Amino acid sequence: MKLYKYLKKQKQNQRKMWAILLDPDKVDLQRFNELLKRIRQAKPDFLLVGGSLVSKQKLSKLVTKLKKHCELPVLLFPGSPLQITSRADAILLLSLISGRNADYLIGKHVEAAPLLSRSGLEIIPTGYLLIENGHTTSVEYISNTKPIPRNKTDIALATALAGEMLGLKMLYLEAGSGAKKPVPIKIIATISRHSRLPIIVGGGIKTKAQMLKAWAAGADVVVVGTAFENGTFS
Ligand code: 1GP
């Protein structure tokens, strides 16, 4: 079954999911077996691969190894159009709809489109909303966009709804990698009440308790990157 269909079905059945985000820049391929063991122990539903500055070569190597040795679906979570490899199962084609930088709304997508159309990847058009977390994150700096203020739930909701009306298939509520504070529960709950799209929440999730709270508020998928990387997710 295609990944998006699967995600929709899981949402209908209210089966909550989580994903580990692997940044190829921070993965030591010499210790790949150790990583594999940790992934198997953690039992996520799927893997996201990507980062702000990753080179294509590193990305391809990691995805190839994961597809060879691990049964989990691999979704690309690209920081740039260079981060595309047909060895993955699918790609979150992110449009940074919380920002007003045309490059991240459509420009990078135009650059990537010819390659994507030949890639055979399942493409999941995703509205990407960056929510303020108290300090500047890599996404904010690199994309040169302002995040939505934490207390502006109405703006976050209107942005999510606009994305849905434009035909995007999924929403990713992002506090930013290593965020001090994750996306506010109120924002997750409000968007989930009004939107039918599957919702991914990530950034600054360090504990299972935080993951449970995000799920309870309406997140369908919670992403854990830094805490898994550091071996501190508990
Ligand atoms: C970042 O949402 C992801 O894009 C994960 O964030 O590294 O803080 O878990 P963390």
Mean pLDDT: 96
Annotation, overall tally of beta strands: 8
**Gap from first CA to last CA:** 31 Å
- Low-pLDDT runs of 5+ residues are none
Write the H/E string, N to C: HEHEHEEHEHHEHEHEH
**What's the gyration radius in Å?**
16 Å
Task: Record the strand order, biggest sheet.
Answer: 1-2-3-4-5-6-7-8
What can be said about the biggest beta sheet? Answer: 8 strands, parallel, barrel
Helix content: 40-55%
> How many structural units, i.e. domains?
1
CATH homology superfamily: FMN-linked oxidoreductases
Briefly note the structural class of the backbone: alpha/beta
Bound molecules: SN-glycerol-1-phosphate
The dominant shape is globular
CATH-derived architecture? Alpha-Beta Barrel
Itemize the secondary structure elements and their pairings.
Elements: H1 3-12, E1 17-22, H2 32-42, E2 46-49, H3 56-69, E3 74-76, E4 90-95, H4 102-119, E5 122-130, H5 138-143, H6 153-165, E6 170-174, H7 185-194, E7 199-202, H8 208-217, E8 221-224, H9 226-229
Helix pairs in contact: 6-7, 7-8
The structure holds SN-glycerol-1-phosphate.
Residues 21, 174, 177-179, 202-205, 223-227 line the site of SN-glycerol-1-phosphate (1GP).
